[in-house]
Design brief:
The chain is an alpha+beta fold. Helices cover 41% and strands 20% of the residues. The chain binds adenosine-5'-diphosphate, magnesium ion and zinc ion.
């Protein structure tokens, strides 16, 4: 069998989380009662006129800057005509020849290596409604709440070479959208969806070959599975002496297979033409510049900085930066300089992540603050409380919102680190366990652990264990 290379290009649709829709003032919210967020404009009633929501342009330009695009400050919106019951107007307003943003790129990290993926374009468009099916009614029901929800479509060049790269690309796009706060990126609510284009070619060749486009890919996992399925399918055809035909296929995640939808011959002609009811978009340069300056440090840059400044492993850096609230908490704690960055990272990724997972809360919905977390970690680092007690105090803090120092005090969690008192305690244990002391001095190393255990027991578990071990070792050698 020949050696093949997979070539992938992705078209990502992300819903923008503006308050209102793209061409009317209806609320753009998910999960509302069917057909309650609609008006003549988004229902496509004859005579209703659209007005562009400026926020949509701003959000899209911000994404354009984040993906290093050129911004077309003068561009139009175009009608893409097709018939489908979830599209009452009979056309979708999108952008054809001139998108708002184009010619950018995105750096992704795959297995520790950076890869640059070119971005062909980002354009703005409106979403369509949704068809619902109800057992009580044999036909389809149309919910138009989603009509006119703003979308950006981000189209990559065919620069991705494996399902792992595609996944990293999607995850990076998602983390940037979240970081900019312009999309909720909830896969299960369909707020980010993608079409996957796949072709295969002999390794070492440069020309692009015939591709298939897969629709209905509703999760990153489905994208990975779909790419692998499709590459295997195409390679089998080629190895069997066949040829690939350009077609659109539908991914069935339940079956783990894709099925033909339409070939190039019956490809739709969308009869694009400029939307006559909307003005040409004209954005002034100053605004483009101001939006550029409003871009925060992006996840990718943050990951590299954490690896460099704090010596974090890529996986830890990626996990911390994955969630903006998490990264903000980490940075505020690290800036205080009161505890070790590595410990802050561990507390956030272990105890805090478990708590937010278990309760389904966001960090901002819990009682945690940078001050509380640093104080708690500081007490553990100083040995005032044990690590185990620290975990208990953490949970109590999260559940009750009490201050960590108060919890340690009121729950009597502090360990005894008073050298004088601990020396006295060790002396008492030695005189009660003279045989063990002799054993140790006669070379039975095991006796040390026993003596330390006895000291801890006598202290009721309150003695600082590392200090006890130090004192016992020292006194045994006297
Ligand atoms: P269309 O207008 O038919 O959707 P585009 O040129 O816009 O075609 O390409 C759509 C997507 O297909 C882009 O993401 C692009 O990178 C990808 N693509 C184009 N050619 C190939 C190919 N040979 N193999 C894989 N992906 C491809
Ligand atoms: Mg396309
Ligand atoms: Zn409306």
């Amino acid at each position: 069998m020949k050696d093949y290379e997979i070539v992938i290009g992705l078209e990502v649709h992300a819903e923008l989380n503006t308050q209102s829709k793209i061409y009317c003032s209806c609320r753009s919210a998910f999960g509302m009662d069917v057909n309650t967020q609609i008006c003549p404009v988004c229902m496509g009633l004859p005579g209703a006129l659209p007005t562009l929501n400026e926020k949509v342009v701003e959000y899209a330009i911000r994404m354009g800057h984040a993906l290093n695009c050129h911004i077309n400050t003068v561009c139009r919106q175009d009608r893409k005509n097709y018939f489908y019951p979830d599209l009452p107007k009979g056309y979708q307003i999108s952008q054809a020849d001139v998108p708002l943003c184009e010619n950018g790129y995105l750096d992704i990290l795959v297995g520790g290596e950076a890869r640059r993926i070119r971005v062909n374009r980002i354009h703005i468009e409106e979403d369509a409604g949704k068809l619902l099916h109800d057992g009580a009614y044999p036909g389809s029901l149309a919910d138009l709440n989603r009509c006119g929800v703003p979308l950006i479509e981000i189209v990559s060049e065919p620069d991705l070479r494996s399902s792992a790269e595609a996944r990293a690309y999607l995850e990076t796009i998602r983390s940037i959208l979240l970081c900019l706060g312009i999309s909720d990126c909830k896969m299960q609510e369909g707020s980010i969806r993608c079409d996957v284009n796949v072709s295969v070619r002999e390794k070492g060749t440069r020309e692009l070959t015939v591709r298939c486009e897969m629709k209905n890919v509703n999760s990153f996992r489905a994208a990975v599975r779909g790419i692998e399925y499709e590459a295997k399918r195409q390679i089998e055809i080629l190895e069997g002496g066949g040829t690939i035909i350009q077609e659109t296929r539908r991914w069935d995640d339940g079956k783990g297979m894709s099925f033909p939808m339409r070939t190039k011959e019956d490809a739709q002609d969308y009869r694009y033409f400029p939307e006559p009811d909307l003005l040409t978009i004209v954005v002034d340069e100053e605004k483009v510049q101001a939006l550029k300056e409003s871009i925060p440090e992006l996840p990718h840059a943050k990951i590299r900085r954490y690896m460099k400044d704090y010596g974090f492993a890529e996986i830890d850096a990626a996990l911390i930066t994955e969630d903006i609230e998490r990264a903000a908490l980490f940075e505020a704690c690290a800036e205080s300089g009161r505890c070790k960055p590595k410990n802050i990272c561990n507390w956030i990724l272990a105890d805090l992540a478990k708590y937010t997972n278990d309760t389904g809360q966001k960090i901002s919905q819990t009682p945690i603050t940078p001050k509380r977390l640093t104080e708690l970690i500081e007490q553990v680092e100083k040995g005032v409380i044990s690590n185990t007690a620290g975990k208990k105090a953490f949970l109590l803090m999260m559940e009750t919102g009490r201050e960590p120092l108060a919890i340690i005090e009121e729950e009597g969690m502090a360990q005894n680190s008073n050298r004088e008192e601990l020396r006295q305690l060790v002396r008492e244990v030695f005189s009660d366990n003279q045989k063990s002391v002799l054993d140790y001095r006669n070379g039975k190393g095991k006796a040390l652990g026993y003596l330390v255990g006895q000291c801890m027991k006598r202290s009721g578990g309150k003695a600082n264990p590392s200090l006890i071990r130090e004192i016992v070792t020292h006194m045994l050698s006297e």
